[in-house]
Amino acid sequence: MTETPSSLRLGIAGLGTVGRGLVRIIEDMADLLSARAGRRIVIRAVSARTRKRDRGIDLSPYAWCDNPVDLAALDDVDAVVELIGGGDGPALALARETLGRGKAFVTANKALIAAHGATLAALAEKNGAPLRFEAAVAGGIPVIKALREGLAGNRVGGLYGILNGTCNYILTRMEEEGLAFDDVLADAQRLGYAEADPTFDIDGIDTAHKTAILAALAFGCAPDMDAVPCEGIRSIAPVDIDYASELGYRIKLLGIARKTAKGLETRVYPAMVPLASPLAQVGGALNAVVIAADPVGQTVYEGFGAGEGPTASAVAADIIDIARGLGGPPLGVPAARLETPVSIPREAHEGRFYMRLRVEDRPGVMADITAGLARAGVSIESLLQRGAALNGGVYVVLTTHMAVEAAVAEALTLFRQLDSVLESPTMIRVEGEPETPA
Ligand SMILES: NC(=O)c1ccc[n+]([C@@H]2O[C@H](COP(=O)([O-])OP(=O)(O)OC[C@H]3O[C@@H](n4cnc5c(N)ncnc54)[C@H](OP(=O)(O)O)[C@@H]3O)[C@@H](O)[C@H]2O)c1
Q1: Can you say which residues are annotated as belonging to the binding site for NADPH?
Q2: Does some domain include residue 328?
Q3: Residue 388 pLDDT > 80
Q4: Which of 192, 305, 318, 359 could form a disulfide with 138 if both were Cys (CB 3.0 to 4.6 A apart)?
């Protein structure tokens, strides 16, 4: 490839799934990228852990750095792309070194941006260095660009996201095939949809990282993982998926960020969403984000949130922006103007709830349950008693009107103390759609 003096010269750290995909895009679509960027984009140096690994790509034209941080110091590297991963360690060291030198930094690393986004943005702004992280949330879906640029003339009321393909794949198969969580997880691991250690995905931590980043962009605050309590999908049972469907809902793991009169609420939990809502239609490994904003109203973004092609596509878009000279504060507002919003604690959450109890099949049990709810101050929207549960007793399934989470927690505690309640009750939150600001 001819390299012109104005080429944007890259150093790429990390040559795994995403790094390999990026090298392929840059090599295979060089002319297209150059036409769009207005200058050529070339790779000058790369780094990974094991130099000799066969990656199915020819790395011989590029310089090699054993230590990824050395990429930042190379005179013929203008921009560094970090595709290693991890919230600290080499990824953070490389970000600091690159931005500290006033060079552009692109990453797909949600853990890094969720933990250090505000300080890295400040460093980038101080040194006039672009910092981009489109691939960090929802892979191939340009949702960061949507929040930072496309919706810049709006006030965001709230956003809901299906941000983890592994969880969505598991929930979809549980529903479609009536399988238990453990069985689908084992199959997902066999098929490569879930990691050998799936904790980050199924316990909601990955979704929490992404939610913290989206909340920062939507509401002009620093990403704050501590403000995102998270629950995963391990406890979702097929019976709850069936009852959700009977009640007109589907269960999805949601990342939620919304502004209320009391402050900013950021949460991750499995929730029942109405069957007719956009998020309920998103199946398999797909991701989606619904954003409600004023004056635009509701916008919906859907696509693949992971994988070589979709993720590398988002990284390539960031690189093209840098080659074009597009700037602006990485988090949408200058780092010095990021706000520290009042964060609504978990127990103050107001919403609707589903509860399932396995109880003895005898007179008086329903009265105990309704008395517990009344004592906690929770009002019932619907109450169903179902035939025999698999493991003895019967199921009582109820949904509430709007209630405060602390009151629902109190009701659940009361239920656990009842002799007639045969196992710890299940609670799942019921969501509508994000609301545009009043
Ligand atoms: N995979 C996806 O679908 C996806 C989607 C969205 C975002 N992301 C993000 O993209 C980033 C990369 O993910 P990935 O899936 O491509 O990871 P991966 O396949 O595990 O690749 C990681 C790469 O980093 C290299 N590496 C690890 N430690 C290193 C060190 N100390 N020094 C130099 N290189 C080191 C590895 O080298 P070796 O190859 O020599 O071991 C490997 O090439 C992560 O931040 C991830 O969260 C990934």
Answers
A1: 110
A2: no
A3: no
A4: 305
